[in-house]
Amino acid sequence: LVSREMKSEDSLIDIDGVKIGAGNFTVIAGPCAVESREQLLTTAAAVQSGGGTILRGGAFKPRTSPYSFQGLEQKGLEILAEAKAKTGLKVITEVIDSYSLDMALDYVDILQIGARNMQNFQLLRQAGKAGKPVMLKRGLSATIEEWLMAAEYIMSEGNYAVILCERGIRTYETATRNTLDISAVPLIKRLSHLPVVVDPSHATGDWQLVTPLAKASLAAGADGIMVEVHPNPMQAMCDGPQSLSLKKYQCMMQGLKPLAEVL
Ligand code: PEP
Ligand code: MN
């Protein structure tokens, strides 16, 4: 089902007019985690004024340490829904298990399955039955074949609205958090009709590298990007070093616009 051979034209996911795939370039932006009402509403207003159309924000955080902030859960989802109502932005959040998936369905437009759960086959099947678009992030060390087969799990349950997200993979390089596999973008486009979005924030772990790689993603043919944005990155509860300030986000968007016209 994921294969280009099965369907030659690009898949288009249309969420009440917000389009992903088939020649659109969609910007998803927002904080790593929903931390407070004020934090998210401030970010949402900036995301929208810069030209983003989808707001991200984690309510359930799969953290490396069990002692790190785990997310606001239901309260976080309520804040996301409020931001959506106030701005008209679509919202996406990560689900990490059956419990969070069920809960998120009432609040968000797109379900995100994170790198750590890319091969959580039960969760993939459940997302396939959820009736909402799913963004599937590439696993930390997943091959393209494994990643596409994970997407196949979702589609095999009848949900064809799948977006793939390249977020960097583990390599021997330690200077960046992960290594962005930019070649995955045109390669996936050849193998599959599904939209591909790049997350330069998790790929690098370094906000200074986000804008150059966002440009590279656009040039490589990605259908969009997902970037982390925070009103005060130094105070962020997670992933501050890779988060763009509101101002830096606006600069990135300004830098992408002329490229989008040229390409
Ligand atoms: C995220 O996007 O919030 C996230 C945790 O990313 P990843 O699953 O790619 O590590
Ligand atoms: Mn993050």
UniProtKB/TrEMBL annotation:
Q: Which GO terms of the molecular function aspect are on file?
A: aldehyde-lyase activity; transferase activity
Q: Which GO terms describe its biological process?
A: aromatic amino acid family biosynthetic process
What name does this protein carry?
3-deoxy-7-phosphoheptulonate synthase
Organism listed in the record? Formimonas warabiya
Ranges of residues in domain DAHP synthetase I/KDSA: 17-257
Residues shown, of full length: 71 to 333 of 337
Transferase among the record's keywords? yes
Q: Supply the alphabetized keyword list.
A: Transferase
